[in-house]
Give the backbone structure.
Amino acid sequence: MENQSTSDQKLPAQEWRRRLEQAGLGELAGALADGLKPLSPLAAQLLWFAQPGFALFGQADAVGALANALSGDDDPSPDHV
């Protein structure tokens, strides 16, 4: 069961990667991700904070998946501490 939730969580991250590559921004996004990696926990927290606002546009799951990818957590909830 745990394996399924991990694979479901990775699917939106792969979707983000696919969208960036289709837009021709794959390499740029990769370079930015490597350079800004020390700030990824802060960015993840900001996305968790903004996630309810994105729910108004139907993008809460995508933003949550991006926050999970940035934080590197396996638990999809922000209050797993």
Observations:
- The chain has one domain: 2-71.
- DSSP finds four helices and no strands in the chain.
- The longest helix spans residues 2-22.
